[in-house]
Amino acid sequence: MNVLEVTDLRVGFAPDVQAVRGVGLSVGQGEVLGIVGESGSGKTALALAVMGLLPEGTRTSGSVRLRGEELLGRSDRELSRVRGKDLAMVFQDPLSALTPVYAVGDQIAETIRIHSGATRAAARARAVELLDLVGIPGAARRARAYPHEFSGGMRQRVMIAMAIANDPVAILADEPTTALDVTIQAQVLDVLRVAKEATGAAIVLITHDLAVVAGFADRVMVMYAGRAVESGPVDEIYRRPRMPYTIGLLQSLPRVDGPAGEGAARGRRAPIEGPPSGAAPPPARCPFLPRCPVADAACAAAEPEPILVGPGGHVAACVNTSATADPAAVFPVPDVAVPPPARRPRRERPIVLEVADLVRHHPVYRGALLRRRAGSVHAVDGVGFDVREGETLALVGESGCGKTTALMEILRLARPQRGRVAVLGEDTAALSPARRKALRRDVQVVFQDPFTSLDPRMRVADILAEPLTTHGLPIGRRVEELLDLVGLEPAHAGRYPHGLSGGQRQRVGIARALALEPRLLLLDEPVASLDVSVQAGVMDLLEELRARLGLAYLFVAHDLAVVRRIADRVAVMHLGRIVEIGSVDEVYGAPAHPYTRALLDAVPLPDPFLERRRRRVPLRGDPPDPTDPPPGCRFRSRCPRYTALDAVESRLCDEHDPRPRAVGHDADRSVACHHPLIAAKVEL
Amino acid sequence: MAAFLLRRLANYAVLVVLAASLAYLLAAAALTPRANYEGRAPRPPEAVVDAQLTRFNLNDRTPLAERYGTWVAGLARGDFGRTWQGEPVNAELWRRLGVSLRLLVLGAVLGSALGVLAGAYAAVRRGRTADLLVTFLSYLVLAVPVFVLAVLLQIVASRTNQATGLRVFEWVGETTPGASDGPFGALGGLGDRVRHLLLPTATIALAQFALYSRYQRSMMLDVLQADFVRTARAKGLRRRDALLRHGLRTALIPMTTYFAYTSGLLLLGGMFTEKLFGWHGVGEWLIDSVTRGDVNAVAAVNCVAAAAVLLAGMASDVMYGVLDPRVRTGAVA
Fold first, then answer.
1. Beta-carbon separation of A365 and B232 below 8 A
2. What burial letters (b/e) apply to B274-302, b meaning 16+ CB within 10 Å?
3. First CA to last CA distance, chain A
């Protein structure tokens, strides 16, 4: 029986924006529907419309039925009896979604008291039970803590506890894991699974990440430009997608289990790049038309209606389904005419960046205004690596592991707190100010967020010319060259950043970094804030530029799939240390450190079949407090391998901090673990 | 918390001493109490004037450092010195502080409470008639100087009195002499005080209302779109309840800073109101003392004002701690 049924839902914002245009869906008890789409596709507006939480002045029409009762058009008073009781929602950002001034236990208790009229004490007790159910250790004590005292993953558990407090019949989860690390994402999805089993609720999981949905949803709906363009059982959608957009989305997805980074992804182009047709869709044609490789005349005639294309109610809104029978053939494989110039072996290439035993501790002060030093955050605590010409080294790890701090320390080009940074053979500690400025030309940076890292009051041309004027170089035709280099039009030079899409802005960011012809580019999560389809294009660009210009990249990322696609070598960081470093193929193929193994395990695969069969050992808990790293091995409190060791073996982990040592047959590979996974394999 | 407050207090004490000293030095260097004697009809002999001035530590022929030393020594005993006429400053100061507080407290509390509510309401009804009305009213009041506002109110009051034939409004002084001797006794005295308070309270409340409604409106607009208000509604709270319990509660936190510092400055800002309604409070006294060149009185008022502002600052710290758990726990900064 379907508990939540939405038919022909339309949401319009003033003045003339249609966010959702006639979407229908139905979810049964205990069923999980995944809604996938890129930003601006209308998926959040859909969820808020179902909840009746859209801002005033929004036009909503259609029908939303919860257990047969119509919700649309009801007053706030009537809806408030349904919201939080039968229909609950989990929001994306657990930091801002909880009221900062109330204890979490009270916030959950409030949810209970609103609907049941329970006594304060009873509601509190129930709140503690719920916190325990979602796996918050020491629930009775933690119920009195405030949201800012929880980590992101723990806050999201609180949100889930709040959502299931009154045994809802349906839960809407809007990007519940987007703001979280992969390891925490895996934990939260498990909690959501527990919540589903505890309440038997139907779940609508909204996400931009096809991989998250693959292992969790029963059915999937793909949204594009406010329409459901394809929907059906999860296996059908992933195995036999029929709408070109879905096919493109699946193909542009970087995968941890895909062919390895260098060169392998080169055959695949970003199939569906281009600005998503946003606010006002032209009437009477397929909205995907401008980006579609198999479009024909019929596509421009009318907006296609969904038609049945497969078993289990698999529908796709495409008129040219005959062309999409073989998904692999939809997007033409570009002829890679110019193979990347053969690189010399790693040993022979010059070292561009050398970092040894780099340390950066931030002092921590406690007390609001009574500032006394209470210790220091060991943000970067003895990190060493080198980057050679023409290669990409990726630093990966959970948030707070020190990867960005390490990058910023290198960028300072100054004497580090401890250790040594050498750029192009020059020790940064010994640089004169003039020499340092000269060296800055060779080291440039691209930041994560293209929306905030470009001055909104400067035109693109000025943004690109600024580094040149700073270093007293002639501008000439350089701006046009740079725009061409990153695949933008000369016309973009006159635009302001807000007139560009996210992908275009990031291209401007890259062009700015390239203006001075650097030899080393530091990239701080350059694709993390972009949609999957745009991501692929930017990564292609970065790969192409590296090959053409002989650049070296230091690439900071949290996304292991992205790293696999773009990097040659990878360094896995945990709590300010590099626990494993080596070539991408070897590290991903046979991880030596249990932490690397756990990170890789936590990444969901965009394949329902594989995802369901995977046997993973989830990482427990959050990373330890960086102000007080535990003695011995810093990873042992979360280490799945540590628990399986005997007393003698685990003593080593308790007492000795593991130093990096070489493993495997690659001389450049090392791991900081007393009981590495590969060594163990050799012993067997 | 106690240790933190003590330390804060010590910091503030240093600041108060600094502010008071600078105020004294400025007043002593710039004001000339001697001129008061020189204007007298039979001009007193020079030696008598000198002796008189020296007695009150007001003689500009004594080196500034020496006068300052004497003043500080007096202050250490809690003595602000004497006015040029030989009255003790302390007694007058406390009396006038009492008058000022009686005048200001009601208006300030009323004005800020109404301002916060109206600001919050205007934010919720953004762009609607109520919002436009509150916005218009507050801008109008902000644009009109207090003395114009007070005079306008007095005109309206006098018309009302004429029209009704009753003395509903009073706008001179704090009481009518002999009010409590009437048939109602002490009750009549109270009624008389209230009638005298009506107009000045309205003046002060309007000015405060205008200011706070603007602050609160912008604070509230920030939280209106906040995710946690949406969460509260998703829990099943109605829009109004969610906005009050979660929105307003959070939006009040930054307001404490405004509250504290504005009320610290209110004491001095009340001078126009005092003058216009004939209340003999601190503000009026400050102006009169400046014109009379009364160095010790000016320094005393400044000293009290500095202490008031900094005490208000401390009150705001405490309130912040009470309202905001993120500050209370002193988490990793």
1. no
2. bbbbebbbbbbbbeebbebbbbbbbbbbb
3. 53
Secondary structure letter of residue A330 according to DSSP: T
Dig out the tokens for A503 from the structure: 């992908």
Query: What's the Cα-to-Cα distance from A378 to each of A239, A382, B331, rounded to whole Å?
Result: 46, 9, 17
ipTM of the predicted structure?
0.80
User: Which residues, 6 or more positions from A407, have their beta carbon under 8 angstroms from its beta carbon?
Assistant: A395, A445, A522, A524, A554, A556
A562-583 tens-digit pLDDT = 899 889 999 999 988 999 999 9
Residue of B11, B228, B235, B323 to mutate, testing the A interface (most A Cβ within 10 Å of its Cβ): B235
Query: A578 vs chain B: nearest CA distance in angstroms?
Result: 25
B311 min Cα distance to partner chain A (Å)? 16
Q: Where are the beta strands (DSSP E) in A469-567?
A: 520-524, 552-557
Query: Which domains are delineated in chain A?
Result: 1-86+166-339 (3.40.50.300), 346-442+518-679 (3.40.50.300)
| Angle at CA of residue A241, ends A288 and A609, nearest 5° | 140
Radius of gyration of chain B (CA): 24
- Here the tokens at position B147 are 């003395």
Decide if B4 and A368 are in contact by the 8 Å CB cutoff. Answer: yes
Cα–Cα distance measured from residue B45 to residue B26, given in angstroms and rounded to the nearest whole number: 28
Select the residue of A89, A98, A114 nearest B237 (Cβ to Cβ): A114
- Per-residue pLDDT of A408-418, as tens digits, reads 999 988 889 99
Q: Does the distance separating the beta carbons of A149 and B228 come in below 8 Å? A: no
Q: Which residues of B touch A (CB under 8 A)?
A: 3-4, 7-8, 226-228, 230-239, 246, 249-250, 253, 317, 320-321, 323-333
Measured CA distances, A570 to A113, A143, A383, A582, A664 (Å) = 51, 40, 13, 6, 15
Q: Listing from the earlier edge strand, what are the strands of the sheet with A59-66? A: A17-28, A2-13, A59-66, A69-70
Instruction: For CATH 1.10.3720.10, list the domain ranges present in chain B.
Output: 96-293+301-328
Third-level CATH fold of B96-293+301-328: MetI-like fold (1.10.3720)
pLDDT at residue A469 in the model: 93
Q: How far is A149 from chain B (nearest CA, A)?
A: 8
Nearest-Cα residue of chain B relative to residue A52: B234
Strand duo A569-574 + A392-396: pairing: parallel
- In this structure, what token pair is assigned to residue B151? 């005079």
Q: Nearest residue of B to residue A93 by CA position?
A: B227
pTM exceeding 0.90: no
